[in-house]
Amino acid sequence: MTAFIMLLLCVIVNYVAISSQYQSIQEQKFVALKPNHERLGNQLFQLASGFGIAKKLGRTLYYPLNEAKTLRCYLKLLTATFPRVSSIYRILPKKSIKQAEVEFAFDEHGHRTCCRYDDPSRLIGHPAKYLLLQMSFAQNARYFEEYLPEVRALFNFSSESREQGNRNLRRLNVGDATDFMCVHIRRTDFLDFGIGSDLNGTLKATRDIAARKEIDLMWLLIIIPSKTRGSLEETPGR
Q1: If both were cysteines, with which of 86, 115, 143, 237 could 49 make a disulfide (CB 3.0 to 4.6 Å apart)?
Q2: Is 108 in the same domain as 179?
Q3: In angstroms, rounded to a whole number, what is the distance separating the alpha carbons of residues 138 and 100?
Q4: Are 86 and 199 in the same domain?
Q5: Averaged over 199-216, what is the pLDDT?
Q6: Could you tell me the CA-to-CA distances from 11 to 1, 2, 3, 16, 65 in Å, in that order?
Q7: Within a domain: residue 21?
């Protein structure tokens, strides 16, 4: 009799646990940023912004995809390079979910912008289970700056990526990757909009960051479009 009662209690406990988990899944809400199909740097920035927005709204980040092979490849590459990012998003088939679309980070003329900040807090009470933000790129650090420690942890390189980086550096007859910093600036497409990075200011800021991080060896490799002349500049040292 005692064994039967214990078995019955175990069944009840398991049932309650499974029911609670199912209810939690049913109540879970999601948010997506309008997918872009641009290059890897854009995907990385949008993933960080999406993480911050999802945290702010208490939702799970998702990608509404069907057969977007290019974007799937980018996400696969990002996950292989930064394994922890696989835990922050889900890929959901677009045809199987009902999404509520919301204009987000639009300008005063009703156009989507790449870099304007729109406070996600205004959407905290939105009733939709699947919320799709109609926005472009989400390239504004304010979306994730309050979660920077978590973002840094997410973008921690895999051991395979570190080994590959060290192999590449050894081919250049230099030490390991801890003495290097990579800086990505916008000097091509942004010039057409009159908002390209200032080269001299960027160099100064980069040297200041390197000094604060106590990076003894810094190589700056800056690609400058032909329209600004000086097609390639390599600046070793501090």
Answers
A1: 143
A2: no
A3: 18
A4: no
A5: 82
A6: 15, 14, 12, 9, 39
A7: no
Last residue of a domain, one of 119, 152, 185: 152
pTM reported for the whole predicted model: 0.74
Residue with tokens 């009159």: 194
pLDDT tens-digit profile of 80-136?
999 999 999 999 998 889 999 999 999 999 998 888 999 999 999 999 999 999 999
Question: Which 8-state DSSP code applies to residue 155?
Answer: T
Select from 112, 129, 152 the last residue of a domain. 152
Tell me how far apart the alpha carbons of residues 238 and 230 are, in angstroms, rounded to a whole number.
20
Asked if the structure places residue 65 within a domain, the reply is: yes
Which amino acid does the sequence have at 93? P
Quickly list H helices, 60-113: 69-81
Q: Which residue has the tokens 């209690």?
A: 9
Query: Are 137 and 173 found together in one domain?
Result: no
Please, is 201 exposed, middle or buried when counting C-beta atoms within 10 Å of its C-beta (0-12, 13-18, 19+)?
A: exposed
Q: Which domain holds residue 104?
A: 28-152
* Tokens standing for residue 160: 């395979």
Angle CA(235)–CA(212)–CA(55) in degrees, nearest 5? 105
In a domain, 202, yes or no: yes
CA distance 54 to 31: 6
Domain match, 198 and 129 both: no
Provide the domain count of the chain. Answer: 2
Q: Residue 3 domain-assigned?
A: no
The pLDDT value recorded for residue 225 is: 46
